[in-house]
Amino acid sequence: MTLTQQIITIGLCVLGTMLTRFLPFWVFRGGQVPAYVRYLGRALPGAIFGMLVVYCLKGVQWTAGTYGLPELLAILVTIGLHRWKKQMLLSIAGGTVCYMLLVQWVF
User: Fold this and answer.
1) pLDDT tens across 57-86, in order?
2) SS3 assignment, position 55
3) Is the pLDDT of residue 30 over 90?
4) Which is nearest to 58 in space by CA: 87, 1, 50?
5) Which residues are CB-contacts of 50 (< 8 A; sequence separation ≥ 6)?
6) Are 68 and 62 spatial neighbours (Cβ–Cβ below 8 Å)?
7) CA distances from 78 to 27, 33, 82, 104 (A)
8) How far apart are CA 73 and CA 58, in angstroms?
9) Single pTM value for the model
10) Residue 97: which of 82, 69, 78 has the closest Cα?
11) Where are the transmembrane segments (predicted)?
């Protein structure tokens, strides 16, 4: 890739990022957000996390090997950390570290 192509690529990435950041403020300039958009703001985060859980568990062999035990233990650690501290990053990091340790050293 030539220097000109690299500059154009970086510029387009910056433009795309800035457009997605500023577009909601331009569209809803009046300050009143439609009810449908507010509903999506409440409903989509849970739906996205549910979809991520299904995606992460789609390849688990429930009837062979470790029977999905590392995955289930990591999920329980994630849920426990989130109920205890109520901090999403800590919960996600704790569950990930737990899973990695289980897979590398236990199972």
Assistant:
1) 999 999 998 999 999 999 999 999 999 999
2) helix
3) no
4) 50
5) none
6) yes
7) 37, 34, 6, 18
8) 16
9) 0.67
10) 78
11) 7-27, 64-82, 88-106
CB atoms within 10 A of CB 91: 19
Length of the chain: 107
Q: Is the pLDDT of residue 87 over 90?
A: yes
| Closest listed residue to residue 66, CA positions, set 32, 41, 99 | 99
CA distances from 20 to 16, 26, 43, 68 (A): 6, 10, 20, 38
Q: How many CA atoms lie within 13 A of 54 on its CB side?
A: 6
Q: Which amino acid is at 21?
A: R
Could you give the maximum distance between any two Cα atoms of the chain, in Å? 57
